[in-house]
Amino acid sequence: MTPRRQVLAAASILGAVVLAGCGSSPSSTPEAAAPLAGAASAPGIALASAPMGNLSTPASTIWELFARGRSGWVLLTPPGVATNGGVVGAVVTATSVSTTVVPSANLRFSPVADTSDRGATWSTGILPGGVVASADAVAAATSGRHVALLTSDGGTVVVSQGDLSAWSTMADGARIASATGGSGCGLRTLRAVALGPAGSVLVGGQCAHGARVPVAVWRRGTWHLAGSISAGIDDAVLRLSATSSGIVTILETHWRGSRAVVVARSPNGLGSWTTTPHLVLARGDTVSSTSQGSDGAAIVVVRSAGDTPDAYAIGPSDRGWTALPALPSDVVDVVAAPSGGFQALAVNGATLVVLDASVHGWRAAQRLVIPIASGSSN
Amino acid sequence: MTGMNRGIRLNDPLVLAAFHSSLLTQLLVIFAVVVVLSLAWNLARSVQFRRAAASGDLLEATDGEAAPPEPRARLVLRLLFGALWTFDGLLQLQPAMPLGLPSGVLSPAAGGAPGWVQHVVNFGVTIWSNHPIIAATSAVWIQIGVGIGLLVAPRGWWSRSAGLATVGWGLVVWVFGEAVGGLFTPGASWLFGLPGAALYYVVAGLLIALPEAAWRSGAIGRWMLRGLGALFVAMAVLQAWPGRGTWNGAATAHTAENPLAAMASAMSGAPQPSPLAAAIRSFAAFDAQHGFGVNLVIVLLLLGVGTCLLTGHRRIAGVGVVVGIVVCLADWVLVQDYGFFGGVGTDPNSMVPTAFLLGTGYLAMVPATAVTPSVAADAARDGARARSGWRGWTPAYLLQVAGAVLAGAIVVIGAAPMALAAANPRADPILTEAVNGSPNHVDFPAWSFSLTDQHGRHVALDELRGRVVVLTFLDPLCSSDCPLIAQQLRNADAQLGDAASCVTLVAIDANPTYLARSALVAFDRQEQLTTLRNWEFVTGPLDQLNALWIDYGVSVAKGVDGVMALHSDLIYVIDRAGAVRSVIQSDPGNTTATASSLSTLVAAEVQRVLAL
Lengths: 378, 612
Fold this sequence. Notes:
The complex is a heterodimer.
Chain A: H1 3-21, E1 38-42, E2 45-53, E3 61-69, E4 72-75, E5 87-91, E6 97-101, E7 111-115, E8 123-126, E9 138-140, E10 146-150, E11 156-160, E12 168-171, H2 173-181, E13 187-195, E14 201-207, E15 215-219, E16 222-225, E17 233-243, E18 246-255, E19 258-266, E20 274-275, E21 279-280, E22 286-293, E23 298-303, E24 310-314, E25 322-323, E26 331-336, E27 342-348, E28 351-358, E29 361-369
Parallel strand pairs in A: 1-22
Antiparallel strand pairs in A: 1-2, 2-3, 3-4, 5-6, 6-7, 7-8, 9-10, 10-11, 11-12, 13-14, 14-15, 15-16, 17-18, 18-19, 19-20, 19-21, 22-23, 23-24, 24-25, 26-27, 27-28, 28-29
Chain B: H1 13-55, H2 58-63, H3 72-91, H4 97-110, H5 115-130, H6 132-152, H7 156-177, H8 197-209, H9 219-240, H10 259-268, H11 274-289, H12 291-311, H13 314-334, H14 351-364, H15 374-388, H16 395-422, H17 430-436, E1 440-445, E2 450-453, E3 458-460, E4 468-474, H18 481-496, E5 503-509, H19 517-526, E6 535-539, H20 542-551, E7 556-557, E8 566-567, E9 570-574, E10 579-585, H21 592-610
Parallel strand pairs in B: 4-5, 5-6
Antiparallel strand pairs in B: 1-10, 2-3, 2-6, 4-9, 7-8, 9-10
Helix pairs in contact in B: 1-6, 1-16, 1-17, 3-6, 3-8, 3-14, 4-5, 5-6, 6-7, 6-16, 7-8, 8-14, 9-12, 9-14, 10-11, 11-12, 12-13, 13-14, 17-21, 18-21
């Protein structure tokens, strides 16, 4: 071998080694998602979902649904299906609730289960796919009409007129994006559905372009953007509800260079919206749970890595956000109390502790031990 | 119960017994080959003797022609790698090999590698996982066969074939067992095995496969050492490359732990004699404290050895060889922890073959001038053999040929079943038997039922007389076992081929909350069972289902609190006359292979019942 060839051979090996040692993996920015943990309250009832069990592994994380009645909080998780992916509840009346489950592991469609006797009996049905992992993935009205948001085709809205096994597709994500594109939004990343008082269907997500309240309503055979105003930049729906007092959505947005949370309200979803002051989030903060009241009140739980959570509330007529007393680290949800105060739900393994807010901070008011099976169902 | 997803212990007694049984069977076949070869050898010797005696040249025939000696470097290389392959083959006899190799060796080797490498390795993992007994026994015999081939065949075609066999099997091990030697794995280092132990075997095999004439000048030795020199220099650069943590000491808030210390520390945890573990732990602690200094010494040593080897001058290269072998042995003991502990160690790792190549490379630098004249004699001798056929072979050569034939037979005994297994995508039934136990062969009347299927049609067991019924219980909302079991029933149906036309697969709803037909339809759609013509998923009133669950011994518990409904995993095979003939526990286990194995077992049981 000539010296030149020796140098070339050595350089080839060196090159191969350097290439082998310098591999890198591409990075990507994850899309912000609406928190699955959440609560909703209405006169005479409140619902809250929380992950329990061993949260370090998905197979041992079991989501539970709780309902508050006159005698306190009770477990209202629908039976017969694993809830490792999440459980979602929607208030129908003070005594009836509609639930669905985010599919997990080898299950890829969602069941629907309704109860009007606090879980003693359930009427069940099957959705034609899996629901999105969002606290407002399903909504129901007293008429029996249900609406659900599925993950398929960029977000498919399906409705049922009462028979929980008979669902029809209203639109998929592409159709909604197309219908709302001309309005300067192009609604995408669908996260929430709601049923208006007159049975109208609303869907919330994020605008692909422009700056509008990212909520669309089904009216006269097509989808219309519900709001012409913007709360900031890249508004994204965290929660969406429609009650007799109007439409309320909790939005995450960019405002004056920071991420913020704001509540937008509309009496009818026809373009007339008002927004609350912005709750500016510190860098690294994430919204871990949200709560909506039927009166338009909103509560958000904000968490940053390693810190205890903070909760902020704003009432329907408040001019600003109120910081709630410092929360214990294991609080998952905060919900409006019947008395007008607040209740926090803290989770430690299989134990749920209900905390009442008092002038001295948070006081344990109720304790529920859930018989979570060891090793879960997966 | 559904959701248990039981795994198999690495030393599962059923699998171990099958492994030993298979080894014994193949050993008997090898023994038979030895007997045949012995007879052939005796016969050949007798014929040789008679002909020589008849022609009066008895003395000449038995003495044969004087053969030139095999080049010393080639002899050493052949014997060392022959011994190494044989040792590796014996390591494959460890009881944890059939079940432990994929999860303990193959998959971890590809961890962190690019997707295409993992994809390639996964191909091998799947074959081994599906056919653990065949794969493990094959690895034993192929490696022992190649080792014996190298040890017993010193000259000519047989010997060079053993070299080529080393190349072939070495490449298989390098690609599938070592994830192409870790070349594409971040954090790989010469100290940990880069560029892969099997690659040294491949190089050795290529050298042995060269014509003997190539060994008679010193050029091959210079090439070997220069190649190794370039490798050492390249590895020194890689070891010195910044940002890989090699210059770090102990882990701090800002820096990761030195990978060498981490590796040594991890290796010390492998089951092994405590003095060995203590030595490695001490080195790991020392390296954690003096990471920069240790790495500097390593880089300088690699660079120095590489430079010496690259010179091609015998004396300078000799220094490099000696230092290189010392470095290899130190790394083998203190970092690679000998490579073969832990129950699934497959070889002594890369340092031993590196040292072997260094040593033989140095030996090969000496020109075999003294034997050069015998090349002509060698050729003349070969020519004479060719003219006279096997009758001209000396007894020693005849024995070597017999040994080489035996080695080849051993390789074939190992490789043939593995080749057949690789073409079979379905896992062997022993896996599911290890999880669930063997099927229970019974004979009692099946409990009849009359329910509604997913299409709303009435289905009664009595109306299925004349067909073999595979009956199971599935939860349509199940998120663990039931979808897997359904898939395996579908696979079993496909394995039955035309016989499937005589079989009906029936699943009875086992979720007391979801009894509506819509749940069954959703399950069928999810599992793509809608096109399976003989598939019936049936449901009915809860009291009827309750009675059936009890009759068939299926324990069903209503799922509450976020846990799905729980039920026993059972499959009944019912014959044409309505009698249960086989009861199969059907936990699909926790791997793809155990699930696939279930379908093979079900198909076999259905075939058995069809034949009754």
